[in-house]
Amino acid sequence: MMLRFTLGLTASLALAASAAPAQEGQRTFSSGYRFVEMSGEELYNNVCRACHMMDARGAAGAGTYPSLAANPNLEAAGYPLTMVIHGRRAMPPFGDMMNDAQIAAVVNYLRTHFGNNYTDMVTAQDVSEARH
Amino acid sequence: MQDEAAVLRRRDLLSLIGAMAGSAAMYHAMTSLGFASESRYRGPIRLEGNPKGASVLVLGAGLAGMTAALELRNAGYQVQVLEFNGRTGGRNWTLRGGDSFTELGGATQTCEFEPGLYINPGPWRIPYHHRALLDYCRRLNVALEPFIQLNHNAYLHASRAFGGAPQRIRAVKADFQGQVSELLAKATRQGKLDEAVTREDQEILLQALRSWGALDRNYNYNASLFSAAYRGYASAPGGGLSAAPVPSEPVALSDILKSQLWRYLQNFANYNFQTTMFQPIGGMDMIGRAFAKELGDVIRTNAKVTKIQQNDRCVTVTFVDARKPAIVQTATADWCVCTIPLTILSQLPLDVSPATKAAIDAVPYAGAVKIGLQFRRRFWEEDDAIYGGISYTDLPIRQIAYPNTGFNRSGRGVLLGAYLFDGANAYEFSAMPPDERVARAVEFGSELHPQYKSEFENGVAVAWHRVPFTLGCSGDWSDDARKDHYADLCQIDGRIVLAGEHASELPAWQEGAILSSLDAITRLHERVVKT
């Protein structure tokens, strides 16, 4: 059973915890192992952003999360598609945590935001084929 | 032709040894044959033979690296350790008031806990069968106390069952056992098990079900002082007048099943979580500190490795000062024990064989989030009689873990307000700014403990994918990847050997890091003394 939690922060609580940013008022939470977020934007914000950050510019510590902003590696849609499904090195695979439509949505979002402008859309069918 | 000794059954051999040599010899033989074995640890490592001044560079001052450094130094090697962080311990880590931590993305949190209060953002519990880690704690004088995994009075919570009211673990456990026992007793008495269970055994089974499930004389599970002694009372026995206990009403089987609360019972059955579990008194990092104290200035902190090269004579590691990256330095040694997490190692220029490189690239790291919350008072003890242990919930915080120390004190307390390991919620919380993680944990947690809202003071949230020195919590091996790459990862590659929880069959456990390290240096030492 898929359960969807959407929760707004109450004003008093946000204050007590030294305030969550205003734009974070609503957020979706998944109930199980798989994500329930469906739009590319929401998937980016709730999943990819954990490592690639709000501006998609990545981060560096002992190792690096690559920047996805204005990234020519996204030109060929097969590359981000394969990365999201199968993962590589520090990039975890999401093939079991997202369905075909979700993966297509987040890849399309990435390829048309953050200084990327690749308008050829990926379909759920493409994802299904890339899984194998 | 088969050797006759080889076809001797193990049990026959054991009784032979027992008869001839006594029980101590039999115990030793049982252990070496794989019986009576709860650990692969065989006691303090003995690295015999002279390394003749050989040098070893250890990369990483977590438990794997410090174990290798300590034992190799004691065996006569020249040892140097390079550590990325400004502190030792790696994931063996405790956050206390005044500690500051900057995550990837730049957000800095300063822990505001009262002195004496802490959370362990990484490992936090030690099973009794992690004998290597326990042995190091004993040898390094790290004092332990119990970690309470099962507290019968903590909660199981399903947000859409029982009107959202959390249920005591004691009651869920007793009712599930009782209702299943009643069902099985019914099937037995109706003759439905005749083919599976002999008549004689059926009699014993019925007795056992009454005892295990708190069934009445007619094998029913219902409100009685007998079942109340398992699940708790509506009114507990007292003293003087009006002291008589009043039984409580069991929950029906269907309600337990539909609530899904039975899912959480495996947390108390699993081998990894069985009593007795331990934690170091004062915080998990007491272990890392004890190792570091032994090693002294062998460890160089703030050293960020940028390249690892080897040839047939030596290993050369290039590193920079993590605070002043412009200054490039090198360190050279005969051998290298590398404990750098694979998320990071996979990104470094590294001279190893294609098979080793493929193994290093094959392991993603799990997400995990822990959130510590400080409250004005220990309301979970004062109001709810929950002393240590863990409540489980289907809310995105998944767990609330109560402190297993400082019981029954007045004043402030810190609990673990969320523990997410793997799965969607770990990413969702990692993707938030730290202050929002804390705020969400307080919001969700207040569904189990309404006192949260008035008693909360401050919190700290560690999302392991944002931790600069690991880029994740622990090696998340798939079965296929382990089959294809694990042996290659553990092999000595020229002059380099890898160690850490990622090179063990105990991923994410400190015991895995230590056993991996001991295995790696044993093999390395064999090679050194042979050449």
Quick rundown:
Chain A is of the alpha+beta class and 132 residues long. Chain A is built from 5 helices and 4 strands; from the N terminus they run βαβαββααα. Chain B is built from 18 helices and 24 strands.
Question: Helices and strands in order, then pairings?
Answer:
The complex is a heterodimer of chains A (132) and B (531).
Chain A (H helix, E strand, L loop, with lengths): L4 E4 L2 H6 L9 E4 L10 H13 L6 E2 L3 E2 L12 H9 L13 H12 L12 H7 L2
Antiparallel strand pairs in A: 1-2, 3-4
Helix pairs in contact in A: 2-4, 4-5
Chain B lengths: L9 H12 L1 H10 L22 E5 L3 H12 L3 E5 L12 E2 L3 E3 L5 E3 L7 E2 L6 E2 L3 H9 L4 E4 L7 E3 L9 E2 H21 L9 H15 L11 H7 L1 E3 L10 E2 L5 H7 L6 H4 L7 E4 L4 H11 L3 E2 L2 E8 L4 E7 L2 E10 L1 E4 L3 H4 L8 H7 L7 E8 L3 H4 L6 E5 L5 E4 L10 E9 L1 H8 L3 H12 L6 H4 E8 L15 H12 L5 E3 L11 H21 L1
Parallel strand pairs in B: 1-2, 1-18, 2-14, 9-20, 18-24
Antiparallel strand pairs in B: 3-6, 4-5, 7-13, 8-13, 9-10, 11-12, 15-16, 16-17, 19-22, 19-23, 20-21
Number of strands of chain B: 24
Largest interface: A-B, 49 and 56 residues
How much is the radius of gyration of chain A in Å? 16 Å
Oligomeric assembly: heterodimer
* CATH architecture verdict of the largest domain in chain A: Orthogonal Bundle
Q: Could you tell me the strand content of chain B as a percent range?
A: 15-25%
Report the end-to-end length of chain A measured between terminal Cα atoms. Answer: 27 Å
The tally of domains of chain B stands at 4
Domains counted in the coordinates of chain A: how many? 2
* Tally of helical runs of chain A: 5
Task: Please name the CATH topology of the largest domain in chain A.
Answer: Cytochrome Bc1 Complex, Chain D, domain 2
CATH architecture of the largest domain in chain B: Alpha-Beta Complex
Quick one: CATH class of the largest domain in chain A? Mainly Alpha
| CATH C-level class of the largest domain in chain B | Alpha Beta
- What class do helices, strands and sheet pairing of chain B give? alpha+beta
Shape of chain B: globular
Provide the low-confidence segments of chain B as ranges. 1-11
Range of helix content of chain A:
25-40%
- Major sheet attributes of chain B: 5 strands, parallel
